[in-house]
Amino acid sequence: MSKTTKTLFSNIEDELLVEEVSKNSVLYDSSHENHKDINVKDVIWNNISSVVGQCTEDCKKRWRNIRDTYMRNKKKLGTGSSALSKKKWALADNLTFLNNVEYERR
Fold first, then answer.
1. What averages of pLDDT result for each successive group of 10 residues across the chain (106 residues)?
2. What is the DSSP string of 11-71?
């Protein structure tokens, strides 16, 4: 039997997760001095998971999914009138803090 089960996050949990991550730039800003310090990030993720009410690993996975979706949508969104006609993603406004961060491609 497979141990991989998909944990669903409610809209409120998604918003809480984004809000908590936004308070901790070490998690999303690769130029932060502690960005590569796993111990610091683990403590932060444990705190976030207790606020959100989901396990740490699920919070990390959900955050990666939310972040990647935002970045993909941001790339797709062009300029001009056709860009305005598409329905805006519900979490887009909550993620604008990511606009000020440079991302390195692996």
1. 71 97 96 95 98 98 96 76 65 92 66
2. HHHHHHHHHHHHT-GGGT-TTSTTTT-HHHHHHHHHHHHHHHTS-HHHHHHHHHHHHHHHH
